[in-house]
Amino acid sequence: MLQSRTRWRCAEVSEHKAEQLAAEAGISPLLAKLLIVRGIEDGDGVQRFLYDDLEAVHDPYLLAGMKEAVERIHRAVEQKEHIRIYGDYDADGVSSTSLMVFVMRELGAHFDYYIPHRANEGYGLNNAALDLAKDQGVSLIITVDTGISAVEQIAYAKQLGIDVVVTDHHEPPALLPEAYTLVNPKLPTCSYPFKGLAGVGVAFKLAHALLGKVPAHLLEIAAIGTVADLMPLVGENRVIVREALKRMKRTSYPGIQALLDIGGVDCNQLVATNIAFSMAPRINASGRLAHAELAVKLLIADDLAEAKILAEELDSLNKERQKIVDLTVKEAEKQMAAKMEANGGEVPSVIVLANEEWNVGVIGIVASKLVDRYYRPTFILGIDSEKGLCKGSARSIDGFDLYGAMTACADLFEHYGGHHAAAGMTIAFDKLEELEQKMQLIAESQLTPEHFVPCTDVDAVCTLKEVPLQVIDELSHLEPFGMGNPQPRIVIRDASIQDKRTMGKEGQHLKLMLSQDRATLDAVAFQRGELADIISPLAQVDVLGELSVNEWNGSRRPQLMLKDIRINHVQLIDLRGTKESVVAAVELARKLESLGRGPVAWLTTPEEATVYAGETFVRWTSMADGQPTDDAKIQDLIISSIPDHPSVWEQWANRFSHVERIHVILNRRPSEKEVRPPARERIIPAFAACKQLGTWLNDDGTRVSLARKSGLSPREWEYLMDVFAELGFVTFSEHAAGGTYEIVEKPQKASLESSEHYKRWDTISRWESLWNEAASEQLAERLLSLWDNKKSQQVSTA
């Protein structure tokens, strides 16, 4: 067996429905399944999803408040009013601000922009910034990616005589600010057809309305914030990002070119994930560790040389951010260890951690990393001891609405905002304990143990024959991939392993060749090389992964990027013929223990076990030796000595019925230990030799000599003497020298087959032949059938 890392949640799609859509749209059944999972169930929907372009974007005036916003901004431009763009310090806010800078330039406006400092001012509008605007003659503020919750601040701006046009995409609170106008597709009064726009998406719609045409030249800026803010890549977002990626490959923006260059991105292979994992972290680094204005300057730069300098500065900040994150995670882990110890070793239902030294610019990343580690809703907060306040970020898990839970105890917060998966907040330090208690109660009322096991959504279950190269090529039409339209994940069940090997200088990667009904597929798992030791070539595997094409030296082959794997049966891993089997067994036990797969049971001889008595892994030398703490925890059984008899194997199977893998590590069988079946053609000459001797000693030298002359191994000679003594063919007199055998001249007639010792000899010879000579498949079938029977008995009696 091999347990999967996560629960696989496979989408259920009617085969008949998929075939109908495939025929209607002229696509493969697999692509049809993937589209149905995405809610697309007719040919028209397929065409829109796969091929919509800029002509399909909605009229910006469908957004409530857009008409008023456009009229007020045009009036300000015409009257040369001082306009201020007020943004946010994350990548969405930076790209929103940059986009509006380009629009104001086109309109010939008198304007500037302002982004608050994350650490000094925090998120959103603040009164000090509004006072500054008043002093500098600003009469109109256009917010981008912020403002929908700024009730008090906008009321203060109104007192100062400043109009505020709010463009935002965050969840509106129950009490809305009395701004000049609000533009947000999520407003309850807004009937705009697409609710998933990023902050920059709303700014893009405002640009559309202000310029009187779709601003295609601004698509690249809009795509950055859309992808970086994890907006669903469906509907208009999909059109924006897809069209932007085409333009970005030959970008005319010096800032974008510099970002691509510093990230080592191949423009010919540019995809949305390059924005998410290369461009966005560098843009975000400015707001986290310095000031987001640096990133705005980069995106609006006119000169490539200047842009390269700014990109290098962002890259340095990002590397510094990575170091700070690593340090903060280690400190958070120490706090977690203390919490778990106080909680009896259990991970709490909600994690709340705070520290004065934590940089509030990276706490969101730290929260995400702790969710990855513990899979619990997680709050990470930096403490400002002078103000008695904490600024924090939270990340959630599937099934727990973070924003809803925070709203249920809204009275605790100075300020909060976000959505079901992520949120930010400011809270008084003395309310942290109450926050933790209330979150625990909410989580315990909503979550079950199953919620605390990560889930992986699977789009389709297929066979290898369903994923030839041409089908994988067809799946590229689903791009761009991202939130709301993830790269398809498929499951292939009951595949055989045709080949298995590790890759990389240190064997850190795993490569399997899967086969099923004469079809094959390479599967590659990065950083999972350790699995090679616990996957048998005989295993039937279920694999979860993402389909891709491996291009090498002009050859194109289908490939599965392996994300998870499971094996639903007990495995036998055949390592017979290993040199120094005992050493190999100990090394394997140590390795499995170091990988967290212990405890390990090692079944060997007392002599072998004595040598390694100081090892920490669990071991037994026989059924009578030692008692483990908990047999049920043992996943791996290592055997370096053949069990004495099938009955011993039955005992082990009964005792270790929860074992997932059995590793058989045996040396090549020495000839002096060989036990062959008790054939008459070898026994009769041996009896004749005994009769000729009449009497002989039972010491080691005589046994070896007589066995060799008779063509038997020493062990076979001992079995033969037991048979002869049982049938009355010889007598045995015990004495200090080892005893003496004497032939019986006229024994009673008796059949060899009637001897219990003869039967045991036959049983042992067949038993050891199975371990030493049987093919891997035969050995596994014989040994594992007993394990499977024991498991079946457990299930039936459970």
Automatic annotation (TrEMBL):
Alphabetized UniProt keyword annotations: Coiled coil, Exonuclease, Hydrolase, Nuclease
GO BP terms, alphabetized: DNA recombination; DNA repair
Domain RecJ OB, first and last residues per copy: 458-564
The UniProt record lists the keyword tRNA-binding: no
Domain of life from the UniProt record: Bacteria
Domain DDH: 83-226
Keyword Hydrolase: yes
Annotated Single-stranded-DNA-specific exonuclease RecJ C-terminal domain residues: 571-764
Coiled-coil parts of chain: 300-327
MF terms (GO), sorted A to Z: 5'-3' exonuclease activity; nucleic acid binding
InterPro entries per UniProt: DDH_dom, DHH_sf, DHHA1_dom, RecJ, RecJ_C, RecJ_OB, SSDNA_exonuclease_RecJ
DHHA1 domain boundaries: 349-440
Family, per entry: Belongs to the RecJ family.
PANTHER family: SINGLE-STRANDED-DNA-SPECIFIC EXONUCLEASE RECJ (PTHR30255:SF2)
NCBIfam families noted in UniProt: recJ
Name under which the protein is recorded: Single-stranded-DNA-specific exonuclease RecJ
Organism: Paenibacillus agilis
